[in-house]
Design goal:
Layout (H helix, E strand, L loop, with lengths): L13 H5 L9 H15 L8 H4 L11 H11 L5 H14 L10 E10 L9 E5 L4 E14 L4 E8 L18 H10 L7 E4 L1 H4 L2 H9 L4 E5 L15 H6 L17 E2 L5 E2 L17 E5 L3 E2 L31
Parallel strand pairs: 1-5, 5-6
Antiparallel strand pairs: 1-3, 2-3, 3-4, 6-9, 7-8, 9-10
Helix pairs in contact: 2-4
């Protein structure tokens, strides 16, 4: 076997980390490109998403710099397996007791979209881009993230490919919706966690919850307040119905409500309000939860306690609502 040529080291302690990926790259240029890419991502620069800034060159005029060209080749032309790189990254996280996943953590599922002009880029299409709050041309990626009260880090990311990229459109065997991708990456997480958590973009879809249930994955998901689910006649059909059925006798006797004090990474906490409130706060809908533990329990844990009671102004058709605070 040919002896590997030595690679120019990454700066400082970054080299020790980068060296652990050497075996997933077959060529010296790949190992060097990986180190330069890591250095560019972590360097304290105002902009680090363009090739010139990643390589430490001047924007525009530095496009022809050798370091920029090397990085361009590494990211777009060189043949290496990104799945192997990510697998090694996750392995290193699990090998460190400070970051290893444990059964009390959660698996967060979310999607992120980035604008992208043109039609030639892989996975690009006109679709909803949540971070911009509108439909536009771009690329959407479904990702999973592991988190507990101390640390969080991404696990896997998979781009969504719009139907027009497939010969048979949505009927093509290779096509997957964002929800199908999300269920698949959750099943393949490969680490311990207590539950899958997601916002109402996922929680409102019974089929997605059924996928998780079938895989034996507990979940806690946001639902829109009036999102209905099947239930027997007198039972709660929506999160709002469930919240209205909870008893409340005052702060000293909260009945069915449980006060939750939120703790944040910087050490500060947020105390619960003096009375439960479910409704829009600063123009955003109340978030309620669907809980699933081995089965689809969509009738819910009531509305989340809200701090700002002033936002809960009763509407005319809700004057007789039996709750301290407005339910919408």
């Amino acid at each position: 076997m040919t002896r590997r040529l030595p690679c120019p080291p990454a700066p400082g302690p970054l080299e020790d980390y980068a060296a652990r990926f050497d075996e997933v790259f077959s060529a010296l240029g790949q190992r060097r490109g990986f180190r330069e890419y890591l250095t560019g991502l972590l360097a304290p620069r105002d902009r680090n998403k363009t090739l010139t800034c990643l390589a430490g060159a001047e924007p525009m005029v530095g496009a022809g710099h050798p370091a920029v060209q090397r990085l361009q080749f590494f990211l777009s032309e060189s043949v290496w397996d990104p799945e192997k790189v990510n697998t090694r990254r996750v392995e290193l996280l699990q090998a460190d007791p400070r970051t290893a996943a444990h059964p009390d953590g959660v698996l967060v599922i979310d999607g992120s979209g980035d604008r992208k002009d043109g039609t030639a880029t892989a996975h690009v299409g006109r679709q909803w881009l949540g971070r911009y709050g509108k439909t536009d041309n771009g690329v959407v990626t479904v990702s999973t993230l592991w988190a507990d009260e101390r640390v969080y880090y991404p696990l896997h990311a998979r781009p969504y490919t719009p139907a027009h990229h497939f010969p048979q459109g949505k009927g093509d065997p290779g096509f997957q919706t964002k929800l199908q991708i999300a269920a698949d990456v959750a099943r393949r997480a490969g680490v311990a966690f207590r539950a899958v958590v997601a916002d109402c973009a996922y929680g409102d879809h019974g089929g997605f919850r059924a996928e998780l249930t079938g895989a034996g994955l507990p979940f806690v998901m946001a639902l829109k307040p009036h999102r209905g689910t099947w239930a027997y006649g007198p039972d709660a059909h929506t999160p709002v119905d469930a919240a209205r059925q909870l008893t409340w006798h005052g702060p000293d006797d909260p009945g069915d409500w449980t006060a939750v004090t939120r703790a944040f990474r910087d050490g500060h906490t947020a105390e619960p309000p003096p009375a439960p409130v479910a409704g829009p706060v600063r123009g955003k809908p109340a978030q309620t939860c669907a809980l699933g533990v081995g089965e689809d329990v969509s009738a819910t844990a009531g509305a989340v306690l809200r701090r700002n009671r002033r936002a809960a102004r009763p509407e005319p058709d809700q004057r007789a609502a039996p709750a301290p605070g407005r339910l919408q």
